[in-house]
C-alpha cells in the first residue's frame, strides 16, 4: 500500500493537517452549502440560513477521510471501522460467506466464531477499510430493513453487504457493512478479484451504521466491549491467539 513508511522507533515524517473530504461526499456538502447561502443571501432568512450553514459543515465533516497509520504485521487483524465496540458474541458466520457460490473459492468454514460489532455514530468517520491484505473473494449485497444498527438483529434483518478477503496463505476474514436507521446506502469501492493492502479503503456507509467482523476460529479479540476503535489502526485480534482480556469502565 502506498504511503510513508513509519515505525515505533521514530522513523517517518508526520504532521497534522485538516482531513480531506472523500469525493463521495463533496457533492452533498456543496449542495447543503449552496442551499444555506441561497437562504441567507437570496431570502435574507438569517436564522434558518445559519442553521443550514452548520448542517453543511456537518455534512462535510461526516465525509472526512483522514490518513491512518496502518500496522504492517501479517499476524494482525485491524479494525475495518471507526466507532464503538457494541457487541462481542459467538455466532455462525453469515450463510452468504459460507456457501459455495460457484466461484471455485471456498467460503468461511461452518461453526461458531467470534463476531465483533462496531457501531458508527454520525460523528464517526464512515470510510471502511480492509482488516487484512489479500484478494476480495466475495462481495454480496442484501437489501433489507433499516432498524437501529446497534441492535443484534440488525446483522440479519438490515440492508447489508458481506465482504470476504483471502490472503495468499489461505487465511480468510469476512466482515459485513450494515445500514442503520439513518444510513440508506452502502457504497463499495472494491469488487471481487481486487487485491487489497491491509487498511485500504473498501467502501463507506452513509449517516450512521455498523460493521461486523468474523474472527477466525481459535482467535480471540484484543478489544473490549465499549472500547472506541479506529479503522486501519486499532488491532482487533491476532491470528490464532486466544487470550482473555479484561478491562474496567471508569
Q: Can you summarize the main beta sheet?
A: 8 strands, antiparallel
Quickly give the CATH architecture of the largest domain: Distorted Sandwich
* Distance from first to last alpha carbon: 38 Å
Strand content: 25-35%
Write the CATH fold name of the largest domain. Answer: Glucose Permease (Domain IIA)
Helix-strand pattern: HHEEHEEEHEEEEEEEE
Number of helices: 4
Query: Strands of the biggest beta sheet: in what spatial order?
Result: 9-5-6-7-11-3-2-12
Q: What is the number of domains?
A: 2
GO cellular component, one term: plasma membrane
Site (Cleavage (non-hydrolytic)): 208-209
Organism: Qipengyuania atrilutea
Protein name: Phosphatidylserine decarboxylase proenzyme
Could you explain how this protein is built, in words?
With 250 residues, the protein is an alpha+beta fold. The protein folds into two domains: 23-62; 76-238, Glucose Permease (Domain IIA). 18% of the residues lie in helices and 28% in strands. It contains four helices and 13 strands. An eight-stranded antiparallel β-sheet has the order 9-5-6-7-11-3-2-12. It has a three-stranded antiparallel β-sheet with strand order 4-10-8, with no helix packed on it. The chain has a two-stranded antiparallel sheet with strand order 1-13. Strand 6 (160-166) and strand 7 form a beta hairpin. Helix 1 runs antiparallel to helix 2. The model has no long low-confidence stretch (mean pLDDT 88). Its main location: membrane.
Amino acid at each position: 500500500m502506498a504511503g510513508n513508511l513509519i515505525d515505533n522507533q521514530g522513523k517517518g515524517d508526520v504532521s497534522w493537517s485538516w482531513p480531506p473530504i472523500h469525493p463521495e461526499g463533496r457533492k452533498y456538502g456543496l449542495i447543503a452549502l449552496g442551499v444555506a447561502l441561497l437562504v441567507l443571501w437570496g431570502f435574507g432568512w438569517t436564522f434558518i440560513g445559519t442553521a443550514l450553514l452548520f448542517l453543511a459543515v456537518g455534512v462535510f465533516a461526516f465525509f472526512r477521510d483522514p490518513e491512518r497509520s496502518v500496522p504492517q504485521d501479517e499476524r494482525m487483524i485491524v479494525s475495518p471501522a471507526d466507532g464503538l465496540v457494541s457487541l462481542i458474541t459467538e455466532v455462525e458466520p453469515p450463510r452468504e460467506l459460507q456457501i459455495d457460490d460457484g466461484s471455485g473459492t471456498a467460503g468461511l468454514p461452518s461453526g461458531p466464531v467470534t463476531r465483533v460489532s462496531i457501531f458508527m455514530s454520525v460523528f464517526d468517520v464512515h470510510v471502511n477499510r480492509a482488516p487484512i491484505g489479500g484478494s476480495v473473494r466475495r462481495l454480496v449485497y442484501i437489501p433489507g430493513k433499516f432498524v437501529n444498527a446497534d441492535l443484534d438483529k440488525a446483522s440479519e434483518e438490515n440492508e447489508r453487504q458481506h465482504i470476504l478477503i483471502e490472503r495468499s496463505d489461505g487465511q480468510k476474514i469476512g466482515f459485513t457493512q450494515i445500514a442503520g436507521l439513518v444510513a440508506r446506502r452502502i457504497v463499495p469501492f472494491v469488487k471481487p478479484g481486487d487485491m487489497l493492502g491491509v487498511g485500504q479503503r473498501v467502501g463507506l456507509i452513509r449517516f450512521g451504521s455498523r460493521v461486523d467482523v468474523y474472527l477466525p476460529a481459535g482467535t480471540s479479540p484484543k478489544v473490549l466491549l465499549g472500547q472506541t476503535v479506529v479503522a486501519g489502526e486499532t488491532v482487533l485480534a491476532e491470528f490464532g491467539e486466544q487470550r482473555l482480556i479484561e478491562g474496567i469502565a471508569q
